[in-house]
Design brief:
This protein is of the alpha/beta class. It has a single domain, classed as 3-Layer(aba) Sandwich (Aminopeptidase). It has a 4-stranded parallel beta sheet with strand order 4-1-5-8. A 3-stranded mixed beta sheet has the order 7-6-9. Strands 2-3 form a two-stranded antiparallel sheet. Helix 1 crosses helix 6 and helix 3 packs across helix 6. The radius of gyration is 18 Å and the shape is globular. The chain starts with 5 loop residues before the first strand and ends with a helix.
Length: 247
Amino acid sequence: QPGTEAPDEYVLYSAHWDHLGRCKPDASGDDICNGAVDNGTGMAALVALAEMNKAAGPARRTQVYLAWTLEESGLLGSEYYARNPVFPLAQTVGGVNIDALYPGGVARDVAVTGGNKSELSALLAKVAGELQLKTGPEDSSEKGYYYRSDHFSLAKRGVPMFYVKRGTDLADGGVAAGKALAEDYVVNRYHQPSDEYSDNWDMRGIVQEVDLYYRLGRPLADGADWPNWNAGDEFRAIRDQSRAGVK
């Protein structure tokens, strides 16, 4: 969606469309890993965001929708793009990466993967305040999720990317219910044939997340700021170097 005033400045929305294909069969012999949550939900969100932005009309900057492949094989698709970008990374403002939206109810908080690393945090704080959502770190930060999804291929080359999800403090049931929902998915469906779509899915939380992603991406696309990594962050120097050559 080309920008009206700064078409050579780019805001990205991304999700990976691949999954594992055939995998360890379950008790019934089903060996097809559908990846409905991981990451069919992310792809559906990507399409919904494109439709929302089209309905809102063109933004000041160009908005780009990227569907990665081979994320499950080690971020290979996003890594290839980052090495061979269609849109120059030095002119890429930032963006939103989407990976696995759990069916379930709405949350009262937003989980920030990787913590406060860039100036995008100020925009997140503003949007969270408008939506009356708390912000906090993701669960199990020791697992290094920030370095295990596609945004990392861009981040390590200097492009600030949002990677946030609704948190575990659910409006119905609180933190206990949110953690139970996440644990149920990880234990019973993650990377298994049982990660399948069901008409019984509770879509309220997914809708909440898509709305959040729109509210994070659209101001970047309509704005003129160039968010950078925080001083001292591991990715700050490469961003400074790439932007130094842009007029």
